[in-house]
Specification:
This protein has helices spanning about 65-75, 100-110, 125-135, 145-160, 165-170, 175-185, 190, 200-210, 225-240, 245-280, and strands spanning about 1-5, 20-30, 30-40, 40-45, 50-55, 85-90, 95-100, 115-120. Helix 5 crosses helix 6 (about 175-185). Among the domains are: about 40-140, Conserved hypothetical protein from pyrococcus furiosus pfu- 392566-001, ParB domain; about 210-280, no CATH class. It is an alpha/beta fold. Strands 4-8-6-7-5 form a 5-stranded mixed β-sheet. It starts with a strand and ends with a helix.
Length: about 280
């Protein structure tokens, strides 16, 4: 059994992305062997063919137009050494966890080598934290779409087995935010598509997600369809009025909740009146 622990405290609460070493404990036959391994970074020049995208990069989608603009910039002035991509060793190559758009642009520009800052001895948690740090400080492309952030939280939760508490700690957000974003990631794709289109925001969808419609309640109106209908109304209102405030959306959500509450009572009453004769007859 092998356990790894990071020495020192960092920006995310317990991670030290710029520390000098980490401690690996190996317990074997009742004996504890503590090995101190160096945590270091090395700047190399590597061919793009050796580089692949890391699963810890939160950016799940890239605008081809943005990549093309960056490629044209590279052709004009060359690849700036200070914009090295960040990677970790992986098999015979390296996985880029920060700078994926720069990597794609370099490929498109036909470069044979690019600067790569290789990280040795870093944990998955630290790599996830550093990936966000680079995205926040990269002035050459758009911020990571919030829907990609939701997808990354879901991947960490479902595939990496991270708890909500761990995701919150690494991403420097509250557990409440993690819980909300996991919930928003499960919304219908038609609804989530309104985010990159600039028609709705995360705050809008947080309110819409409050509407809860039980599956058994109305077979002709599924929970997803209820969410879609409410979101589409918000988009229509925004196009008509030029905006759709979260406060006005809250009023729409309240109306839906009131309608659902009344309809549920009607449904239950109807179901009871349908089954009561059967119970009385002993059927």
């Amino acid at each position: 059994m092998t356990k790894r622990s990071i020495e020192g405290k960092g920006p995310a609460g317990s991670y030290d992305p710029v520390g000098s070493f980490f401690c690996a404990e190996n317990v074997n036959h009742g004996e504890r062997l503590v090995i101190f391994l160096e945590k270091r970074r090395e700047l190399l020049r590597l061919p793009p063919g050796l580089l692949t995208h890391s699963r810890f990069n939160a950016r799940k989608s890239r605008d081809p137009g943005d990549v093309e603009k960056l490629a044209e910039r590279i052709k004009r002035i060359g690849y700036e050494e200070t914009r090295a991509v960040w990677a970790v060793p992986a098999g015979d190559g390296y996985e880029v966890f920060a700078g994926g758009s720069r990597l794609e642009a370099a490929k498109r520009a036909g470069l044979h080598e690019i600067p790569v800052l290789v990280h040795y001895g870093y944990t998955d948690e630290e790599i996830s934290f550093l990936a966000d740090l680079d995205n926040e400080n990269d002035e050459y492309h758009k911020p990571v779409p919030v829907t990609d952030v939701w997808a990354e939280y879901a991947r960490l939760y479902e595939e990496e087995g991270w708890t909500q508490e761990k995701i919150a700690e690494v991403k420097s957000v509250s557990q409440k935010t993690v819980s909300l974003r996991l919930k928003l990631h499960r919304l219908p794709e038609r609804v989530k598509d309104f985010i990159p289109q600039g028609l709705l925001t995360e705050a809008h969808l947080a309110r819409i997600a409050e509407v809860y419609l039980e599956e058994y309640f109305t077979p002709w109106l599924t929970p997803d369809e209820a969410i879609v209908e409410l979101a589409e109304k918000a988009v229509r209102d925004r196009k008509k009025n030029g905006e759709k405030s979260v406060r006005s959306l809250e009023a729409d959500v309240a109306e839906w909740k009131a309608w659902i509450a009344v309809a549920k009572e009607i449904y239950k009453a109807g179901a009871l009146s349908f089954f009561s004769p059967m119970f009385e007859s002993g059927a």
